[in-house]
Amino acid sequence: MIAEVYIELKKGVADPEGENTLKALKLLGFSTVRNVETVKMFRIHMDEEDEERARNILEDMCERLLANPVIQSYRIVMK
Amino acid sequence: MIAEVYIELKKGVADPEGENTLKALKLLGFSTVRNVETVKMFRIHMDEEDEERARNILEDMCERLLANPVIQSYRIVMK
User: Fold this and answer.
1) What is the DSSP track for A20-59?
2) Which residue, among A9, A22, A43, would best test binding to B if mutated, counting the most B CBs under 10 Å from its CB?
3) Fewer C-beta within 10 Å: chain A N or C terminus?
4) Which of 3.30.300.230, 2.60.40.10, 3.30.1280.10, 3.90.226.10 would CATH assign to domain A2-78?
């Protein structure tokens, strides 16, 4: 089973990489760009066929390693 | 218009962040995990209503700034 885990900054948390990318795009002349947000995605391959159990394991991974719950939220998409 | 731009390493290019995440997950006891790939996503907000034109602009952004064509490929998803 393959899952995609999206790790995103919570609303209100500064995203300096996104801000700098926005500035760089504007400097390059992309005048219609309004905002850039950065999101991290992990594509995880697992030996686990039960979707419910895989989701529980992935949530555990997010809480213990992949996401920082103070500033980040996560979303799991099964493929 | 909002677009999601996925920047991914090309096949065969080393992904040290993914490898280290895999090792860390195994050390934490997640024994069913087989592989971890890391993908970068930019969510881009644009003042541009024409989808075709937006896609052209986004491809230009990828080629000029967001992706390194030697080692990365990109994929654009309109929202």
Assistant:
1) HHHHHHHHTT-TTEEEEEEEEEEEEEES---HHHHHHHHH
2) A43
3) C
4) 3.30.1280.10
